[in-house]
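Task: complex structure prediction.
Instruction: return structure tokens for all chains below.
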Amino acid sequence: MARIIGGLTTSHVPSIGGAIARGDQQTPYWKPLFDAFTPIHAWLEEMKPDVAIVIYNDHGLNFFLDKMPTFAVGAAASYDNADEGWGIPVLPSFEGDPDLSWHMIDSLVADEFDITMCQEVLVDHAFTLPIKLMYPNAGPTWPLRTIPVMINSVQHPLPSAARCWKLGQAIGRAIESYPKDLKVVVLGTGGLSHQLDGTRAGFINKDFDLLCMEKIVSDPVVLTQYSNRQIIELAGSQGVELMTWIAMRGALQGKVSTVTSTYHAPISNTGGAVMLLANEPVATLAAAE
Amino acid sequence: MDDLRHIPGTPVFQGEQAKRGYALNKMCFSFNDAANRAAFLGDEEGYMDRYRLNEEQRAAIRSRNVGQLIAAGGNVYYLAKFAGIFGLNVQDIGAQQTGMTIEAFKAFLASQGT
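Output:
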């Protein structure tokens, strides 16, 4: 059976792509973010996940306002990155896992999540940069297959935190009912607090970010109780990317522990946060007893 | 339902904005493509004609002012692609919207990390 071995959250600030292109990883501004991935590289090397489910928000590369799904799941054999208009390098294509995608889609819809199914997805920085951070030396191919899961963060009304939590739980059930022996890691990319628009642009809330990082491990249900208005007030208008973290955490149904956790602000306009959570599936725990 | 109006300093892109800003956002979405960015720079007025921008939106585009573009129905994610044509990043547009210099805006960001 497929197993979820861990969850990874990271900010996906576009300027990370610029920093990589310039080789700025060890400059004082960028070092705390890039160094946060050193223990993650060791974990990935040891665990060798086969597939990453990448829960993220599209920023106007793949979806436009003509048709804006609340939740969408990729079902392609590969996913291309593309020009987003402001000049970060385009990364090599990512291999998909269409069989697992269709299993997830079947399972999610049966579970009353009426997601949009996509056989073509252009994946933007929120998908590509976290994988590049995980595997900085990979290329031109990546060492694992990927499935994009997109949560609308462009056009309100957005789904609630509670709904994203339930989506994550349904993704967890989908993966763990897949008969192939696969090791799966679930990514939630985005956040934490930031705001790009309005006279409150530049708002960062370190205290709230640190609270989220604590609760996402120990008591994630607390985070599902915020309304979207409260999240915007506390984390800024783009802080709603916290939804991707909450969905990721919903998919981890075993015993969850922190492998590594780093907070550094600001990264560009954002409270930069990186966490790797190990998930020991309940079945494994039961077998060990 | 959440009432997302009147959060201080914080525009929230709801149905009303989506309806009003559709043409403007559609034009900015086209700037994902380098050929379209070049076409815009080659003939700004003609390019705005193609996307049927209204007068408020045209004036906002001419002004390069993010606050004005948001007031005209622009969504920040699509507007970022317009700003990218001029090499402006999120700190530049943050400084512009808050009325700070770039240096002051960056110092403000840094002050919140400590």
